[in-house]
Q: What sequence folds into this?
């Protein structure tokens, strides 16, 4: 998913700031009943409500182990990140199809072998303290989360033409890793790409899946149900009382991206959403 432009100001309207503030879920819980069936009618949802976008939002180089470590240090226990494949089939973290924005490499990531990708610097673009950070393999991220008892929302981010290979490869690796994981819930596989989710469901049907949506266009519910999704992850402004009610009545959990604004967070939590993905990990308390 693509993050919105940076929000203005580092403090909330009440003057609170930092991970110790009360600006997370409790601060926005008005006690009202969410639309749709009561939560008790849905299966238990074992995931935290607040989710760190790409590991640490904008505070560290996105989709790196350094970002995960910072997010964890600030109290986050669930992370969203982007997974794709190298030319030789290695699953690793990177948002863009190309390397230029977040590494010192050039060109299409899919054109590079993992041996080539492992050498690029994925931290210097962010700030000097992170120079030398590397692109992490998926297995390294799974290991980090297993050791720290953290949950994951893995966005399948295939390069053009690589959707089915990406969905199948990532699902197989996650399923294998889950056999050896401890108490953390299974990673959620999410994607805008229907083909990638289809391939994932074929290879590892037991893994939870979520459909990513920029908007609730006609047919979204049928697609989510056909794919066996347990959740939909909608762009924050697309969630309304109506869309929230439709998803809830269908038994789907409801998440939003990328929630960086205090008023928007309050609105979404009042709708009863189950998860908010944010860049502002130093502001919203998980």
A:
């Amino acid at each position: 998913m693509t993050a919105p432009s940076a929000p203005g100001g580092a403090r909330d309207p009440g003057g609170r700031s930092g991970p110790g503030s009360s600006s997370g879920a409790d601060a926005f819980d008005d006690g009202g009943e969410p639309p749709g069936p009561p939560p008790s009618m849905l299966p238990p949802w074992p995931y935290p409500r607040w989710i760190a976008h790409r590991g640490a939002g904008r505070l560290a180089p996105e989709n790196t182990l350094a970002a995960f470590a910072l997010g964890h240090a600030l109290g986050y226990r669930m992370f969203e990140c982007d997974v794709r494949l190298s030319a030789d089939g290695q699953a690793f973290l990177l948002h863009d199809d190309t390397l230029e924005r977040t590494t010192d490499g050039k060109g299409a990531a899919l054109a590079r072998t993992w041996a080539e990708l492992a050498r690029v610097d994925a931290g210097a673009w962010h700030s000097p303290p992170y120079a030398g950070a590397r692109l992490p393999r998926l297995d390294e991220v799974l290991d980090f989360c297993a050791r720290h008892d953290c949950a994951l929302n893995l966005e399948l981010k295939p390069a053009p033409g690589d959707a089915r290979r990406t969905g199948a490869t990532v699902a197989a690796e996650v399923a294998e890793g889950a056999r050896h994981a401890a108490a953390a819930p299974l990673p959620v596989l999410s994607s805008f790409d229907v083909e990638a989710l289809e391939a994932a469901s074929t290879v590892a049907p037991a893994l939870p899946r979520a459909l990513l949506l920029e908007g609730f266009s006609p047919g979204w519910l049928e697609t989510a149900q056909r794919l066996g999704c347990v959740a939909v992850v909608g762009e924050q402004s697309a969630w309304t009382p109506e869309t929230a009610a439709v998803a809830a009545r269908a038994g789907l959990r409801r998440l939003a991206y990328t929630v960086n604004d205090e008023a928007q967070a309050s609105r979404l939590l009042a709708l009863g959403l189950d998860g908010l993905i944010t860049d502002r990990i130093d502001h919203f308390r998980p």
